Amino acid sequence: MNILHIDSSILGEHSASHRLSAAVVARLLEAEPDASVVYRDLAIDSVPQLNGALANIANVPLEQQSAELRHDAAKRAAVVDEVVAADVIVLGAPMYNFGISSQLKSWVDALAVPGKTFRYGPDGAEGLLGEKRVVIASARGGFYAAGTPLAAHDHQETYLRNVLSDFFGVKRFEIVRAEGLKVSPEMNSRGMEAGLQQAAELRIS
Fold first, then answer.
1. pLDDT for 39
2. What confidence score (pLDDT) does residue 65 get?
């Protein structure tokens, strides 16, 4: 089994999503101790943000491409290769201002490559990542789950489900969640405990 472990929090060792994603990977390794793990911390090893030059690179002759442009294009391509090679993707995703971090958005943007993660057909876009398993390690300061007063403000988990499952075709999409982390110290402890318990009980097959 090939595990791709992605973190996207700017808080490093103080990050709740880091702690959750690590717990998910540890759970998976209980089943397959010899599984390979590729790790990328997007806050440290960021993915170049999509810009006009990168979007148009296919139309620019190689000799006219700057070294910086080629470097950025190669790094974005490497991100796609990591995802294609993975059997399981564990994605640490904190909520920032009701959405995902800009670092994680750049990673998602890099994945949108026709022929790699999706393709266009007579019925529109078709996802190509159907055999992947994705586990989101979600950390949120408040409460945004379905049925809560702020559910409509969730552009974090809903976005990730829409792009990874609905667009890229991932069929096995799961969420391990710690929320209410900024409500009070007590709720922080309870939220993290609940999230870690979900990670410990995650199905390993």
1. 98
2. 84
Catalogue all structural domains in the chain, each as residue range(s) with its CATH number: 2-200 (3.40.50.360)
pTM for the predicted model, two decimal places: 0.94
**CA-based max dimension of the chain:** 59
Mean pLDDT by 10 residues, the chain (205 residues): 98 96 97 96 95 87 87 94 98 98 97 95 92 98 94 97 97 98 97 97 89
C-alpha to C-alpha distance for 33 and 159, rounded to whole angstroms: 32
Q: State the SS3 of the chain.
A: CEEEEEECCCCHHHCHHHHHHHHHHHHHHHHCCCCEEEEEECCCCCCCCCCHHHHCHHHCCHHHCCHHHHHHHHHHHHHHHHHHHCCEEEEEEECECCECCHHHHHHHHHHCCECCCEEEECCEEEECCCCCEEEEEEECCCCCCCCCCCHHHCCCHHHHHHHHHHHCCCCEEEEEEECCCCCCHHHHHHHHHHHHHHHHCCCCC
Phi, psi of 67 (to 5 degrees): -60, -35
